Amino acid sequence: MNEIKKRPEERKQKIERMFVTIFIIVFGLVTFSWLHILNWIFALIVLIVLVYGVYYLLVTMRHHESFSALPRLKELVAMDPIVFKHTIFDLFKEHGYVGKLAMPSSDNVVDMWMHKDGIQYAIQVQHRSPRMSIREKHVRNFYEYILHFKNTVGIIVTTSDFTKVVYYWDRPRAHRLQLIPGRKLVRIMSGFESL
Measured at the alpha carbon of residue 130, what is the angle toward residues 63 and 125, in degrees to the nearest 5? Predict the structure, then answer.
């Protein structure tokens, strides 16, 4: 049954890749056929766009395939967001945290409040596609929100990843903000790391 469910998703990804590849090739052919009319500056701009397009396609494909290589993570991504949130809640309870799920609200900044060893944890759960890395603005907003609470550490758990800028920005704030990307989440769930 799982293989049947996976096939439409894989087909969709192949069609998407094929469409982008065809678009880049057609764009390149049409552009370079008119290069003798265009000035060199425009040609350079077009070339940069073309190179960036191919680079973006290759990086996206590699990034997605690296995530797909982890079967457990693939299962989490396919999971219903509400079920995923409850799964994370149960995971924290298994690691000695106590607390409760937050009531649904318009801001949805914190999904659950947990306690362990006298420290309060504000946890946000981000159920995302592997291609949708969490950006600095989102993390910064969450961090600024938890600063209003004393003795509180923020944790963002995601099925995706964080941008490099986020990891760099988080370094001096690691004592108040913890990031758990999809790969680390799988290791925690498999028992190779603890929360």
Answer: 145
